Amino acid sequence: MTALSNLEEDFILKAIEESKRLDGRQPYDYRRTKIEFGVERGCCMVHMGDTRILAQVSCEVVEPKENRPNEGQLFVNLELSPMASTTFEAGRLSDYGIELNRLLERTVKDSRAVDVESLCIVAGEKVWKIRLDVHVLNHDGNILDSACIAALAALSHFRRPDVTVIGESVTIHSPQDRDPVPLNVHHIPVCVTFAFYHKGKRLLVDPTEKEEKVMEGTMVVGMNVHRELCTMQVTGSMLILKEQIIRCCQIGVVKVSELTELIKQALEKDKTARAEGKKFGFAESHPKKSITSKVIPEQTLDTSDVEDEVSRIMETAELPEQVSSKLEIKKPGLGQIGDGLTNSWLDDGDADEAEEEENGNSKEEDEMEGAIGSEDEDEEEEEEEEEKKMIVTKPKAKDKRKGKSKAYVSDSEEEETFTLDNADLDVIQGTKSQKLSEELDLTAALKKPSDKTKSRGNTRAKGGKKKWKKEQNIKDRP
Amino acid sequence: MAASMDDFEPRVVLPGDSLMGHIPGELHGKMTLGPGLRQDETKIFSTKAGILKRKNPHTFWIDCHQKRYVPAKGDKVLGVVTQKAGDVFRVDIGGQSQAILSYLAFEGATKRNRPNVQVGDVVYAKLLVANRDMEPELVCIDSSGRSQGLGVVGSDGFMFRCTLGLVRRLLLKDCPMLKFLGEKISYEIAIGMNGRIWVRAKSIHTTIAVVTALTNCEFMSEDDMKKMLRKLVAAGFHDSRPKPN
Amino acid sequence: MTSNPENNSSVEIRPIGSLQSCISKPDGSAVFTQGDTSVMAAVYGPGDVKPNKALMDKATVTVTYKPKIGISGVREKALERMIRNTCETVLLTTLFPRSSVDIIVQEIQDAGALLACSINAACLAMINAGIPMKCTVAASCCMMGKDEELIMDPTKEQTKDAECVLTSAIDSSAHSLIASSMQGSCSVEQYHKLMSVCQKACDKVFEFYREAMERTLSKP
Questions:
Q1: Which residues in chain C have Cβ-Cβ distances shorter than 8 Å to B65?
Q2: Start and end of every Exoribonuclease phosphorolytic domain (chain C) (predicted)?
Q3: Counting C-beta atoms within 10 Å of the first and last residue's C-beta, which end of chain A has fewer, N or C?
Q4: ipTM over the 0.85 cut-off
Q5: What pTM was computed for the model?
């Protein structure tokens, strides 16, 4: 989001020319890398400097692919979480994300690091599908290397349920019955990323995010400890000499052995912690002495007064009204459940005493869907109900409004209320037999809005009729 | 007997804490509420988690650790020019929206004599307008038309980001860190209230050293700072070292 | 973590832990653990917002919940909505019109009480980011098992046999209910019982927030 300024760019490039890096590393040094495992099997978190990656392995039984009936499946999914950087969007994978995904897949899957034939349960019918989810939690450069380490560490850490096949029957044992079985990991391919600068003359290993922004191109070399090359990719706008490639591979050999050693040590540490019954998991690896971390042990809650409090609440609080849900059919296409609100238009002072029961209201709204012919009448009934609603909710302006359009709860007392008396009610209900000329009077009255009421928040999505204050005008009518 | 106001000790508060519970003694007359405190009818409560501090006689504020900058009028900030649009530059200052810097807000700038500012340059400017409803506006001159050190920052040196707490600490009167550094290393510095600091020293080596020293010193005591500086000098980061080639 | 049905005077909550400012990029971040359940939350804000999503009078709060396994589905959307409504209630959104507050919640380990842990992590992350808030919010989870057995902060296995599981979020200033999510069925009396136990547990979480902040702010 925030682009690098020319100043920063120039400085970093000049520093690289002098073989200096911002954090004081040598050009071929990796940042401090830490590997932690969680309580669940197959859960791994990698810290590489400030870059954080979380990987999780899971499995399920599926049908194998048609062209490979004897092999299990390995599915690799890398997600650039919006947590990692403001440039990452949730859901959509950018070009960068797709590239990383593909590279990770090639390194882990295509190099046959995991033996997929051993994942077969019944040939042609049931195989294990291993799913690897890698989440990038913080982006400070070199996501690929750390994602690779996390992936391979998680795959080595994972245990799948044990399976026995006797003739036709297949039994998948739960972890309580039989110890889960590790995956068959042949070798550990690790990626080493090189960033190139100054027309390919200078290179850095493990670039940070700022260094990545100013680089000309990058080369990824994936290798294992046996000096077998698993992946190689060169991206960017530069031309490099073949001597550079050989040099990078040689540097890669050294780095890969260091990183593989780290993975093995972390796996060993976790294994001994589990075997000896000590605590393990992420919580254990938090730096306890740091002031940013805090842990409190298990504590008990005193619930001795809960019973008393509950009985007190039950006595003092009002129980919600029981709602009758009997359907009355008034006429074809018009049904009613409940009685609705009591008519508060008859007395002026009843607005505050109106009941809160809105169940009748909402059910009557449902009847709108069914009404076909008598639209006018229904609309007016609807208006009535809505107006009743308006009167009811105004004195308690802070209640949440159940309108179709969600409005911001307004504490304003500015909205005016209005009431229609019995005569007006008859007028409205009798409109279906009215002649046009009489209706014209109504519209004339509407054209003289002496007091407008702005219906904020209660405009229905269907039409949005505004209520005019008709009180004075209608009273004038004969 | 109510405790007197002099007994007030800075203490940790969380959002939603009412100020009344933390101030001993009675409160008379006017009270000045600084950042992090808010009044809601009769109640005064804190909106951030931090340390409640007081300056005589009745000024309170909350000191908190924060990374994100919220523009405030009068702050001097370091911004990066991202766009040239018509008569203005759009400058990114790290807030919620980009700020505007007019072509004419530079010393000696007229309609014909445009300032030499390119996209990607770093400018040290002052916030003229900064409230939540409007886009912030920057100027590189003061009210009399002189630049007073504001303007485009040179093409040398390095700019890095830090927390707002570090910036406030460095801008205190008699900041020990800057003085200690200055005794051994000669350097130029521009501190932006938006958590960005620009440093320039004689060589890349020394600049990196100064940047590292400043980033690490936020929570150090004076003794720790002196120790770190001694280590830097021992590693050769001072002016008498010949420039590495 | 269970209560003796005969001596129903106390229930236990699992150890609570937190880690603040754990990642460098976001403006605020925190990891919150309850027993083995661990959730990481990160906050970016107040920041830029797309013009079509900008609100004229307040900040747009968005929550993204990322599960550990698989892609986000309907369940995650429901969690996002719950967390969003809770966070929007406590943030002073009117101080930042036309800006956005993005909260990202990542599940690290799920061993029960996931929604409660997520809300707590989000609240800690917002405190860490220094975004102005009206008050803090804490959530806790409580279940009613067979024979009216009240279990506080249940694990995943315990919730499998539950009659009713209630997660509720309480605010720190008025101790009133901000959000509540219930699965299963129970009588009105049982509901009130669960609610008051949840409130007590939330008080413990508020104490924890205070202790954690005092520790973080202990250096000058």
A1: 21, 128, 130, 216-217
A2: 12-132
A3: C
A4: yes
A5: 0.80
